[in-house]
Amino acid sequence: xxxxxxxxxxxxxxxxxxxxxxxxxxxxxxxxxxxxxxxxxxxxxxxxxxxxxxxxxxxxxxxxxxxxxxxxxxxxxxxxxxxxxxxxxxxxxxxxxxxxxxxxxxxxxxxxxxxxxxxxxxxxxxxxxxxxxxxxxxxxxxxxxxxxxxxxxxxxxxxxxxxxxxxxxxxxxxxxxxxxxxxxxxxxxxxxxxxxxxxxxxxxxxxxxxxxxxxxxxxxxxxxxxxxxxxxxxxxxxxxxxxxxxxxxxxxxxx
Length: 255
Known about the structure:
About 30% of the residues lie in helices and about 15% in strands. With about 260 residues, it is an alpha/beta fold. Helix 3 runs antiparallel to helix 8.
C-alpha cells in the first residue's frame, strides 16, 4: 500500500473518489489511457471510530466489525489502484455511516488546491448519490469556478447507468444536453458557460478486461452494489455490455 501523501503537484491525473470503489467503477476505462503519474484519492478513506457499531451495509457485506470492513477495503483499494496504475491516497474521513454528514470533509480542500494547473482533475458528477454530491460541492467550493482549474466530472457508475437513456443506441447523453440529468445541467449553470458535450468511453475489449480486474478487487462490495434499489435494472453489473460498459465525462466550457 502506498503511503498517503498530501502533495499532488507531481501528478498529471488526479481522481477524487468518494468511496473506495468509485474510481474503478466509474473510470476504470478512462484511467488506462490517462497521462501519468495518476493518483486516486479516496475521500471517505479514514478508519471508523474505535468501538463503533458495524453499519448495516458492512454487516450485509459479511463483516462482523467496522474495523474488519475498513482493513479489508483498504487492502482491496490498494490492489485496484495497482491494477489501474495509480497511487493510492486516503483522506481521513470515515465512511458515511461512521461520521456526521454535516461536518466538512477533512483534507479535501487542501488536496484539490494542490493539483497542478496542467493536471487533469476528475470529480464525481454527484448523479443520484448524495455522498458523491457532497464531495463534488466541497471540491468545487475549494477550487472556485472563475477561471482556475476546469475539472472533469464523471458519471457516477453504476447509479447513472440505471437512469433512462444512459446507454441508448442514439447516444443522447453524448449529443443532447436535454438528455442530461438535472445534476449535470446545474453544474453547467455554476460555471457560467455551460458544459462541453461529454466524452464517452465505451469500455470494450482489453479496456473491459482491465476494468473488470480492477472492479473485482473490490469484491467485498459487489454483492450489494449489484442489487441496490438504485441500480436494479435488467443489465448486469459485470456484463460485457452491462452497467459499467460506458463511461461518460463532462467538462465546463472554456467560455
